[in-house]
């Protein structure tokens, strides 16, 4: 897999406002936020799309979900509610081919998203 914007952030080649990091996951504020809180949560392991997740990655993908819930609690909007989104491929809205989760909170979400 070619280096992506996200792998460059992981390697500290590109700056980001990091809000959480452990051995497997990195979370940082989105530069184009769609809500008062908009955090991108990424695995440090490069996986291009949701279609590329393998059985060996299940714990890692679960860790992304856990990190989203943990950050929502720590930032104080877990009880009010929040949105977690993952896009897959071009028609699904994916623009960086390194799986990532959007954590959006701090305002009333609508459906369909807009």
Describe the structure.
The radius of gyration is 14 Å and the shape is globular. It is α+β, with helices and mostly antiparallel strands. Strand 1 and strand 2 form a beta hairpin. It is 20% helix and 22% strand. The chain has one domain: HIT family, subunit A (2-Layer Sandwich), CATH 3.30.428.10. It is built from two helices and five strands.
- The fraction of residues assigned to DSSP E strands is 15-25%
Query: What strand line-up does the widest sheet have?
Result: 1-2-3-5-4
User: For this structure, what is the CATH homologous superfamily?
Assistant: HIT-like
For the record, the count of structural domains works out to 1
Number of strands: 5
**SS field, number of helical segments:** 2
Rg on CA atoms, Å? 14 Å
Question: Please, what is the average pLDDT?
Answer: 94
The largest β sheet comes out as: 5 strands, antiparallel
Assign the CATH class.
Alpha Beta
User: What's the CATH architecture name?
Assistant: 2-Layer Sandwich
- Given helix and strand content, the structural type is alpha+beta
CATH topology: HIT family, subunit A
Order of secondary-structure elements: HEEEHEE
Low-confidence stretches: none
Organism: Salinicola socius
Domain HIT: 5-114
InterPro entries: Histidine_triad_CS, Histidine_triad_HIT, HIT-like, HIT-like_sf
Active site: 100 (tele-amp-histidine intermediate)
């Amino acid at each position: 897999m070619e280096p992506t914007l996200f792998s460059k952030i992981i390697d500290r080649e590109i700056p980001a406002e990091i809000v959480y990091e452990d051995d497997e996951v990195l979370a940082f504020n989105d530069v184009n936020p769609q809500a008062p809180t908009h955090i991108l949560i990424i695995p440090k392991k490069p996986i291009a799309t949701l279609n590329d997740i393998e059985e060996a990655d299940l714990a890692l993908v679960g860790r992304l979900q856990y990190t989203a819930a943990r950050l929502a609690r720590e930032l104080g909007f877990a009880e009010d509610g929040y949105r977690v989104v993952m896009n897959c491929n071009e028609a699904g809205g994916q623009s960086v081919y390194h799986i990532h989760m959007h954590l959006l909170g701090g305002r009333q979400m609508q459906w369909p998203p807009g």
